[in-house]
Amino acid sequence: MQPPNPSVADRTGILAGRAAMIVRPAMPVRRRAHFRRRIQLWGAVFVTPTLLFFAVFKYGPMLWAMWLSLNAYDMMSAPHFIGLGNYRSLMADPIFWHALSNTLVYIAGSTTLITLVALGLALAVNSAVPGARQCMMLMYLTNLMPIIAVCLVWRFLFLPYGLVNELLHLVGIGRIDWLTSTTMAMPAIIIVTVWRFAPYFMVVFLASLLAIPADYYEAAELDGAGAVSRFRHVTLPLLAPMTFFVIVVSALLCARIFLMPYVMTGGGPGNATRVLSMLIYETGFSYLKMGRAAAISVVLFGIMLVFTLAQMRLFLRAEQSVSR
Amino acid sequence: MKTPLPSGHRVPSRQFGRRAALRMAAGASAGAALAATPLAQAAAPIDISFWTFDNPQQRPWLQKRVQLYMAQHPNVRVSFQWFAFADLGKKLSVGFATGTAPDGFVSQDWFMPTWLSKNLLAPLDLQRLGYASLDAFRSSLTPAFVAGAVQDGKAYGYPLWFYGYVNYLNTKQFHEVGLDPVKDAPQSWDQLGEVAKRLTIKKGNRFVRQGFKFAMHAAQWTMIQFNPILLQCGGTWFDATGKSTVNNAAGFKAMTIRASIARKYGAEDPADSIATNPIPQMDWLKERCSMFFSHPLPMATIESQNPTMAAQRYFRPVQWPGVVPGKGFSTTYGFNLVINMHAPKHKQEVLHDLYRFIMSDPVDCWKATAPFPLALKGGWLDDPAVKNYPFLHEFIRARDTGVFLPRTVIFNELADTMHRTVQKIMLNNADIQKSLDVAAAEIDRATAQSKRG
């Protein structure tokens, strides 16, 4: 039976103790305690700048934004407290609901497709198809391109008589108004998102695939399992933790999407691609309603918190399963 | 500085002994000390911060004038910064919020109500700018500018450029279909539709050439192009109580006209455009459409995108069509030099002098920034270099007959709402009245939020 996992404090103590033993095995108790205190003090000294950095540039602004969401603030005169007024007016604003629903649709659509496409690409690369590795490198380039350039290029590709429609025309598909139709604008942005992020997650999946021992497949093959069976009963279960990781991380990425709809469609046509981050930007910096913008950002923060908590639970579960 | 001796004053040479020399030296020192105080003040370095927007012609000229001023006033240092056209308003808002707004800046005309509603602009000392009175100031400038810059008997903006929109025709394409670009230039909206229809070339359902194009790329342009149609139809943006009236009969009529080029005449494909924010006229410049409403276009812009059109000059700006034929007018707007209310008094004084200096050579301004007309009615139009500029009379007429954009603190919300509405109607064939009703409700909501603070 394994001993229970030591707590972080215990671990620190153990490490300090071990360090002390390495430095001077026969150190007296008093000197050892002094040494441990010095180690802890230095630890605090090293950690303080980082903590200060987070306090000033991350948690401070977050708390300030939460407080601001309870105020009316136009950036030019002093904020004044209005309680939940911003949240109440958001609840009554159809544009907010539209943006919220767009954000959720975008997260769901992009995350699902990113996961499927990334897994498919990783399997293809892993299957020793000639040239697959070279293709992988080319695909990964989509991640290295500046996002603004990606958006502008795709905007022109999606023109009514752009390259995408011309290619579709060759196979008999008529004109699609990708960016100017309310039904097609969001799918178009999801396509670009998948094009951009799937290769990145493909690498993540590929690393996991390579870590699966070949013995499992050999054993399954000896038991008469076909390719589909091996994928279903060996690959997928062993990839499960990584699949959850990809889903959660890509969902977090998508929740913060801003540039793609901003550059490609400007949130239109109508409100078809207006997402929460765009609404925050417009409300704060274009309409000068910073309190209201802060309230929307708190809502977005709530959505992201759900995904983050899911991710944390997932990691804990994965850690437990590994330790078992 | 040398002070001449009073005439007839002579120093008697025989009294000029050691004592006298010491007395003189002491006196001179005392005099120098007394004189040094105001002199030091005048020469004390003054740092001014100044922001403007970027533009290939206007920003370099403004910067040149500021540098000239600094050369003449070595104690004045102007930190001259510029930002993208669409970013300037946001930068200024953040600047005011954080106490880092510049001492002086160029304000886009439509932002004046926002700054004024928050008391962020200092009233201008018109006499310091060279005007005898407010009336003299008013009468020397184009009325649309005055309407935005003067409030409660005080002027808050000193104008640079002020211009209206014109209808740019591709005269080669007019001739191709047997139209005369002078005689057949559309005078009314119906004529615009008919002429655009004749100019349109289609291959099946696909437009090879659109007869006319409305801008669809940005909210600001949607407002600029819809605003005069609404006013021509007798409409207004708000009633006396501040409620949106864009969905009344006049608004419906205006939007029906706006939609007619595509819906009734089939002369436009609203989804098919290569316009970008930097060059909204791209479809017209690339001859993908025959007519387009634009601000005066510098030759450099035409040359950069279509050298043949520039060389052969097959274009012509004419006035906007009207609901009443021949009585068309467009939107006008401009740019004002303004002073931050929180700038120290001595900096405000220097900024007055700087602004007066900047605008003291309007002919140079025109030469460097043509064809953007100035808001000044006189003092530059008689110069031969100005007079002979092609189509100048069209630009001046557009400036003087034009109407300004709605003066409201919710201008950006209004523009975004109207842009969404136009998109729904033009791109997704939405019902005009229903879309305008939704727009009016959105505008009223924005007004209510703005009143709540």
What does this structure look like?
The complex is a heterodimer of chains A (324) and B (453). Chain A has 324 residues and is mostly helical. Chain A is 74% helix and 1% strand. A two-stranded antiparallel ribbon of chain A has the order 1-2. In chain A, strand 1 and strand 2 form a beta hairpin. In chain A, helix 4 packs parallel to helix 8. The longest helix of chain A has 40 residues. The radius of gyration of chain A is 26 Å and the shape is flat. The N terminus of chain A is likely disordered. Chain B has 19 helices and 13 strands. Chain B is globular, with a radius of gyration of 27 Å. In chain B, the strands form three sheets. In chain B, strands 1, 2, 3, 6, 12 and 13 form a six-stranded mixed sheet that branches. Helices cover 46% and strands 15% of the residues of chain B. The N terminus of chain B is likely disordered. Chains A and B meet through helix 12 of A and helix 3, helix 18 and helix 19 of B.
CATH architecture of the largest domain in chain B: 3-Layer(aba) Sandwich
Question: What is the strand arrangement across the widest sheet of chain A?
Answer: 1-2
Radius of gyration of chain B: 27 Å
List the quaternary state of the chains: heterodimer
Report the mean per-residue pLDDT of chain B as an integer.
Answer: 89
How can the largest sheet of chain A be summarized?
2 strands, antiparallel
Distance between the terminal alpha carbons of chain A, to the nearest Å? 11 Å
- According to CATH, the homologous superfamily of the largest domain in chain B is Periplasmic binding protein-like II
Shape of chain B: globular
The CATH superfamily name of the largest domain in chain A is: MetI-like
Question: In brief, what are we looking at here?
Answer:
The complex is a heterodimer of chains A (324) and B (453). Helices cover 74% and strands 1% of the residues of chain A. With 324 residues, chain A is an all-alpha fold.
